[in-house]
């Protein structure tokens, strides 16, 4: 059995799993052979290629057992909080309390892809008038109505204001359908004016102090709601401890990203990195386990780098990927075409930055919320992307347009122009549906063209 | 000397505040963007039309856009990168049920005031602002009172003209005779209208219907309430903010105030059918179609206005005709 790092299919994983077991693989209670998840309807898994490490196995198993974890949390009497839209901030508050499991119903975004439409969630959304002109997050509506995925949360907390129309409109439908939502306002982040006090935000950028103060007042409202729900007092100490814990996750992830995106040889594939990044948003409903999963991944890639091992060709083109892709398989496709991911901006880069620990906890969280790339202008977002492109030495940029998403139609042009103005890299914009098989030939042609152009640029 | 013009489209931008700073407020009614100057795929045609109009405007001194929807918010980036017109992006809170959101809106108006001052405007005294507010109060009351004397098309155009060109542009002489009040009473609900869309009202009358409630953003729904100048005597800006903040709209979270407003208006006007006017790619209104149909017992005709059409498609004309005939 070849134990070198490589990407393998699900079927190959079955055999590999046996091999690892024979060698004494130790797994948590959610562990097991990966292919069992296909039995839950996750058919897309059959088409993906996976990293062959035990660390990656644990990562996938952790991700794919989240729903079970949530049901278990409910059975244990924990309060379930459905956090919506803000991606990464309110969960830090929720997890600062005991006996709470917080998760993003927004995660249903991936279900149409992972289940290859088999879950029927989009049909439910269709029947409620939320058709394919909305982004894949419309699957969330179906997930609520069918109750066949996550447990219905005890509380829903949703950010609105400087958010996408898709989510705001769908969340409003949910609310009107009898799933009451606690709405909180995230204002559009603007540049501080000359007569205003500016606050530097994590990840660069700045916001006027008045906006920070406003968001702090919103978080105080959320705090009261969480306290009422759990019967616990969310004091400053608890919140600070929660921030420290969240930062532990973020540090791990930062290290992982840094190693992977700057390594000479790509030590781990793009899909595993995407899954790892998503853990930072809400810890896949288990914060402690998230830290363990990420630590194992860090150790794995560190050792691969140390021994000069990788999973892709040495001349793979370093691509910076913008927006999450509706079909995970396209990340494999990019690798097949000769690319590797070196830098990402999946709409939640603020959830990867460290939360300041030297300011009062609520203020720190307000700073994080305002650092969200989606609450500011696309120009600001592009600036941060450019900084990260420089940092990771990415050679090309891929903007993955999300079908139906209100922001995609307008931001692509702004981001592309900004990148062209600041850097000499090729930019390609593609649109990927949740199951993209039918457009693979076209996608491959376009991806290959990007890779070739970039390689030609190298030789100039 | 002709006053400098500030253009905008959002009903939450108070004309009084602009006028009080010495500018001419103009809530424009864009023409459909047949050939968009900045081509944008998958974008609401109204946003495209607005961007077109703004980027080609020769009269405007500045443009004000708002955050009521993601597309408009992001279109601000397009506008500022495509033309030299100074721009102001006003943050309009989506939430409304707590004091913080109201305060945020008030603070935003103050910031807008500072922007107007940078353009050469003058911060108004309370007295002057009050005068302007009263002027607008009177003009709006007079317009609302004209409803019974005008055809639906004239009435909606009067509102739009007043918002765009001010009271001087409104024809205040009422026709001698009230127009015939025949026809099936209909409401039109939805987003803003394009310049070309006003012909719809006459068309509906030709089919035997009559719009008795223009609840589009351009129509009555987009008009703020009556100022109560006694409420905040020393602070007219507060009254201005409070009143504008209450305009019912689809983007508010939750947006039940829109439904409350509709319920009252539909009953008052004895509406027998609803035309829902929404643009393709407008998620805000699109998501409400199904809900509205469940919410009301009235028949609803859902019209999705297609990309940059100069007029409505033949199919849409036929659907409107069939809808009106069905209700007769
Ligand atoms: S993918 Fe874009 S449009 Fe869809 S929910 Fe996320 S941010 Fe909103
Ligand atoms: S019609 Fe809809 S998408 Fe267009 S500007 Fe209005 S709210 Fe935005």
Oligomer: heterodimer
Assigned CATH architecture of chain B: 3-Layer(aba) Sandwich
Radius of gyration based on Cα positions of chain B: 19 Å
Strand order of the largest sheet of chain B: 2-1-3-4
Summed over residues and divided by their number, the pLDDT of chain B gives a mean of 93
**Major sheet description of chain A:** 4 strands, parallel
What Rg of chain A, in angstroms, do the CA atoms define?
21 Å
Stretches with pLDDT under 50, minimum 5 residues of chain A: none
Supply the helix-strand structural class of chain A: alpha/beta
Order of strands in the sheet with most strands of chain A: 4-3-5-6
Distance between the termini of chain B: 53 Å
Largest interface: A-B, 48 and 44 residues
Number of strands of chain B: 8
> Tally of extended strands of chain A?
12
What fold name goes in the CATH topology slot of chain B?
A: Rossmann fold
- Overall shape of chain A: it is globular
The helix/strand class of chain B is alpha/beta
What is the CATH top level name of chain B? Answer: Alpha Beta
Count of domain modules of chain B: 1
Please describe what this structure looks like.
The complex is a heterodimer of chains A (460) and B (328). With 460 residues, chain A is an alpha/beta fold. Chain A has helices at 10-22, 54-64, 66-75, 90-94, 111-114, 121-127, 139-146, 165-176, 209-230, 236-262, 270-282, 287-306, 329-336, 361-370, 378-392, 408-422, 440-459; strands at 7-8, 50-51, 79-84, 100-103, 155-161, 181-186, 198-200, 206-208, 317-322, 339-345, 396-401, 426-431. The two termini of chain A are 42 Å apart. Chain B is an alpha/beta fold. Chain B has a single domain, classed as Rossmann fold. Chain B is built from 11 helices and 8 strands. Chain B has a 4-stranded parallel sheet, with helices on both faces. In chain B, α2 (45-56) runs parallel beside α3 and α4 packs across α8 (236-245). The interface between A and B is large, with 48 and 44 residues. Bound molecules: iron/sulfur cluster (SF4) (2 copies).
């Amino acid at each position: 059995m070849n134990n070198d790092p490589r990407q393998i299919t699900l079927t190959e994983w079955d055999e590999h799993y046996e091999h690892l077991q024979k060698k004494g693989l130790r797994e948590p209670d959610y562990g097991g052979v990966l292919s069992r998840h296909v039995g839950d309807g996750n058919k897309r898994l059959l088409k993906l290629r996976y990293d062959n490490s035990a660390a990656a196995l644990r990562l996938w198993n952790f991700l794919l057992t989240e729903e079970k974890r949530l049901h278990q949390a409910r059975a244990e009497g924990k309060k379930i909080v459905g956090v919506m839209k803000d991606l990464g901030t309110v969960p830090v508050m929720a997890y600062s309390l005991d006996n709470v499991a917080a998760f993003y119903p927004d995660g249903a975004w991936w279900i149409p892809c992972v289940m290859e439409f088999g879950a029927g969630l989009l049909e439910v959304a269709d029947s409620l008038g939320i058709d394919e002109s909305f982004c894949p997050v419309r699957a969330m509506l179906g997930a609520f109505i069918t109750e066949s995925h996550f447990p219905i949360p005890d509380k829903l907390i949703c950010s609105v204001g400087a958010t996408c129309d898709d989510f705001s409109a769908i969340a409003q439908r949910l609310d009107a359908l009898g799933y009451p939502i606690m709405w909180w306002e995230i204002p559009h982040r603007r540049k501080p004016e000359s007569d205003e006090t500016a606050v530097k935000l994590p990840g660069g950028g700045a916001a006027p102090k008045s906006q920070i103060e406003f968001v702090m007042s919103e978080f105080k409202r959320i705090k009261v709601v969480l306290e009422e729900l759990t019967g616990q007092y969310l004091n400053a100490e608890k919140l600070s401890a929660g921030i420290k814990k969240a930062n532990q996750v973020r540090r791990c992830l930062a290290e992982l990203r840094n190693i992977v995106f700057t390594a000479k040889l790509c030590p781990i594939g793009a899909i595993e990195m995407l899954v790892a990044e998503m853990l930072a948003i809400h810890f896949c409903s288990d914060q402690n386990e998230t830290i363990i999963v990420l630590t194992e991944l860090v150790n794995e890639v560190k050792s691969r780098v140390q021994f000069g091992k990788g999973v892709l060709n040495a001349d793979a083109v370093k691509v910076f990927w913008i927006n999450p892709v509706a079909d995970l398989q396209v990340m494999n496709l990019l690798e097949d075409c000769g690319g590797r991911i070196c830098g990402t901006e999946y709409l939640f880069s603020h959830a990867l930055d460290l939360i300041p620990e030297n300011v009062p906890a609520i203020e720190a969280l307000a700073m994080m919320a305002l650092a969200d790339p989606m609450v500011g202008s696309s120009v600001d977002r592009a600036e941060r992307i450019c900084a990260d492109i420089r940092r990771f030495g990415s050679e090309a940029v891929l903007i993955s347009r999300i079908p139906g998403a209100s922001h995609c139609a307008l931001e692509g042009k702004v981001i592309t122009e900004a990148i062209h103005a600041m850097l000499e890299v090729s930019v390609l914009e593609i649109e990927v549906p949740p199951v993209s098989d039918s457009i693979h030939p076209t996608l491959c042609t376009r991806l290959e063209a990007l890779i070739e152009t970039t390689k030609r640029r190298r030789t100039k | 000397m002709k006053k400098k013009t500030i253009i905008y489209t959002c009903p939450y931008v108070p004309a009084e505040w602009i006028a009080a700073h010495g500018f001419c407020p103009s809530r424009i009614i864009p023409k459909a963007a047949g050939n968009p100057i900045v081509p944008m795929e998958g974008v609401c045609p109204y946003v495209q039309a607005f961007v077109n109009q703004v980027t080609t405007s020769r009269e405007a001194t500045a443009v004000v856009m708002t955050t009521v929807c993601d597309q408009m918010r992001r279109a601000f980036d397009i506008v500022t990168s495509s033309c030299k017109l100074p721009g102001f992006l006003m943050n309009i809170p989506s939430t409304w049920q707590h004091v913080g959101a109201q305060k945020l809106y008030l603070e935003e108006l103050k910031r807008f005031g500072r922007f107007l001052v940078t353009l050469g405007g003058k911060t108004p005294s309370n007295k002057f602002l009050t005068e302007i507010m009263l002027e607008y109060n009177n003009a709006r009351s007079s317009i609302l009172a004209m409803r019974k004397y005008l055809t639906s098309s004239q009435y909606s155009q009067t509102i739009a003209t007043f918002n765009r060109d001010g009271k001087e542009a409104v024809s205040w002489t009422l026709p001698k005779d009230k127009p015939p009040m025949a026809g099936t009473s209909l409401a039109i609900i939805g987003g803003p209208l394009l310049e070309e869309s006003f012909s719809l009202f006459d068309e509906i009358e030709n089919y035997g219907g009559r719009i008795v409630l223009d609840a589009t953003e351009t129509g009555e729904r987009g008009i703020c309430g009556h100022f109560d100048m006694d409420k905040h005597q020393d602070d007219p800006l507060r009254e201005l903010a409070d009143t504008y903040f209450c305009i019912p709209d689809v983007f508010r979270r939750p947006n039940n105030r829109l439904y409350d407003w509709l319920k009252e208006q539909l009953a008052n006007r004895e509406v027998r059918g609803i035309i829902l006017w929404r643009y393709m790619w407008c998620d805000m209104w699109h998501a409400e179609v199904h809900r509205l149909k469940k919410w009301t017992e009235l028949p609803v005709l859902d019209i999705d206005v297609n990309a940059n059409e100069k007029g409505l498609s033949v199919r849409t004309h036929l659907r409107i005709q069939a809808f009106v005939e069905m209700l007769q």
